Amino acid sequence: MRKPLVMGNWKLNGTKDSVTALVNALVPAANDASAKADVAVCAPAVFIGMVENLAQGSKLLWGSEDCDVHTSGAYTGENSPTMLKEFGCTYAIVGHSERRDYHKESNECVAAKYKAAQENGLIPVLCVGESEQEFDAGKTMDVVKAELKAVIDLCGIESFANAVIAYEPIWAIGTGKTATPEIAQKVHSDIRAYLASFDAEVAAKVQILYGGSCNAKTAPELFSQADIDGGLVGGASLKADDFKSIIAAAVANA
Ligand code: 13P
After folding, report:
1. Among 9, 93, 105, 158, which residue carries the largest CB count within 10 Å?
2. Which domain, by its residues, includes 234?
3. Residue 24 to residues 14, 18, 39, 55: CA-CA distances in angstroms?
C-alpha cells in the first residue's frame, strides 16, 4: 500500500507572518493525519529555516522548491542539497515546469538535480507534465517518458525507490482547469506502466502525485483514483483551511 502524500508548493509567496500562521495551523493537521497520510510544505529557500523552527518535532515535513547540482562553490544564488538537508528538508522539488520554462532547465539538468538531491539525503520530487499544445497533439506520454528516461539513464530505475513523481499538466497549473480524474488517472497509470517496463516492484511502490489546480473541491475525486497517491498543491496550499481540506481528502482515501 502506498501512503498518500499531500505537498504544498508555495512558489514565490509568503511573508514572515503568513508563514508563521500557516505552519502553526498545519502542524496539528499533519500530526492528526500522520498515521494515514504524510503532509509536507515546500517553501522558498529564505523561509526554510523558519519552517524548520516552527515544525521541528511535529509530523509536518518540509522541503525546497529546487536544488542545485553542486554542494558548495562559486554558484551565486543557488542552494545546495547539503544546505537544504542541514535545515531539515526531507524533500526537494526538481524540474517544476516553471523552472523548466523560465530557467530553461533541460531534462538532463533536472536529472542532475534529482541525482544531487538523492545523493545528499533528500527525496527528489520529480515534476513531469506536458503543455496544452502537447496535450492537444496527443503527445503527453512522449513528453513524460522523455522526462522520466533522462532520470532513469542517469540514476537508474532503482532510484525511484526513494523518490516521488508529480504529474503536473502545465495547462492545469494555476489556471483552474484541473485535469479530470479520468485524464489524470490514465496518465498516472501509464507512468506506472512505463516504470514497470524497467522494474515492476519499484513501479508499484513509487508515489505519484497529481498537481495542477488541485484544491478542496477537486482533491476528493482525484485522490480516489487508483494510481493517484496525493497532490502537489500550489495556490490552495497557501490557505490553511483549503490545504486542510485537501489533507482530509487524502486521509479519507488512504
Ligand atoms: P496550482 O495548484 O496553483 O495550480 O499549482 C500547481 C503546481 O504547480 C504545484 O507545483
Report:
1. 9
2. 5-252
3. 14, 10, 13, 8
pTM of the model: 0.98
Length of the chain: 254
Q: Compute the distance from residue 235 Cα to the ligand 1 centre, in Å.
A: 6
- Tell me, what amino acid is at 179? A
Number of domains making up the chain: 1
The Cα–Cα gap between 58 and 96 comes to 27
Q: In tens digits, what is the pLDDT along the chain, a chain of 254 residues?
A: 799 999 999 999 999 999 999 999 999 999 999 999 999 999 999 999 999 999 999 999 999 999 999 999 999 999 999 999 999 999 999 999 999 999 999 999 999 999 999 999 999 999 999 999 999 999 999 999 999 999 999 999 999 999 999 999 999 998 888 889 999 999 999 999 999 999 999 999 999 999 999 999 999 999 999 999 999 999 999 999 999 999 999 999 99
Does residue 96 carry a catalytic annotation? Answer: yes
Return the ligand 1 atom nearest residue 98 CA: 8
The helix or strand, by DSSP H or E, that contains position 233, with its residue range, turns out to be strand 230-233
- In ligand 1, the atom with minimum distance to the C-alpha of 173 is 4
Q: Is ligand 1 within 6 A of the CB of residue 126?
A: no
Active-site position among 65, 96, 98, 147: 96
User: Do 105 and 92 meet the contact criterion of CB atoms below 8 Å apart?
Assistant: no
Distance 55 CA to ligand 1 centre (A): 23
Planar angle of CA 138, 141, 145, nearest 5 degrees = 150
For the Cβ of 212 lying below 6 angstroms from any atom of ligand 1, the answer is yes
Nearest to 39 by CA among 96, 90, 1, 97: 90
Active-site residue identified among 105, 130, 168, 188? 168
